[in-house]
Amino acid sequence: AALADAAGETRRRLGKPSVVVANAGVAHGGPFATSDPAEWRRVVDVNLTGSAHTARAFLPDLLDTAGYHLQIASLASLGAAPMMSAYCASKAGVEAFAHSLRAEVAHRGVAVGIAYLNWIDTDMIRDADRHPVLRELRTHMPPPARRTFSADDVAARLVRALERRRSAVYVPGWLRLVQLGRASLPPVVARLSRRELPRLEAEDALGPTGPLGEGGRAGHAAGTRT
């Protein structure tokens, strides 16, 4: 209902939108076995179901304007990591959703793009680094994959993708190579996890993180109220 209201307000103030970006995202960390089912579901509700609701609210406008819908995905869409099961599942889901939507609306002149983003300097990522298990997740990645990018730089890249109606945009650009080799990632991640997780368990460092960042906590509070 809130998205429908936002779509209506956008039309009244600015006219029919020709570009829509589905960007809302929250994250929790920790083992799946001990995760709170409601918190796990909340991540999927915001990241995946919320993206679908965004598309549903604005799709009539995009059909009228032959517009462009950009779905924000993640490196997690290409390769899942341990301790982030809800986030990885939701980001894999938004990738599949965007591919499906693209196939449905292409003949109507609507373009659908997917943005694959790595670590961005936001409150969510800064908060994640406070938790040993998530900090280890990032620091065990190859050096180029550990780097964070400023939100302004990423936004500029996304604007260029919007202007060109890209079907895919990668930030950083080398994520294209991950796309090509994504089938090789699960065994590599599993091998690394078998080596590192026992040590983290022994250090009692595998507890749940709760919602990450101010945005995640605000989303959690909103979900609790509803």
TrEMBL record:
Record-linked Pfam families: adh_short
Entry keyword DNA damage: no
Gene Ontology MF terms: oxidoreductase activity
Keywords: Oxidoreductase
UniProt keyword Magnesium present: no
PROSITE patterns, sorted: ADH_SHORT
InterPro entries: NAD(P)-bd_dom_sf (IPR036291), Sc_DH/Rdtase_CS (IPR020904), SDR_fam (IPR002347)
Domain of life: Bacteria
Residues covered by region (Disordered): 201-226
NCBIfam families, A to Z: PRK05872.1
PANTHER family: DEHYDROGENASE/REDUCTASE SDR FAMILY MEMBER 7B (PTHR44196), DEHYDROGENASE_REDUCTASE SDR FAMILY MEMBER 7B (PTHR44196:SF1)
Full protein name: SDR family oxidoreductase
Protein species of origin: Streptomyces rubrogriseus
UniProt lineage: Bacteria, Bacillati, Actinomycetota, Actinomycetes, Kitasatosporales
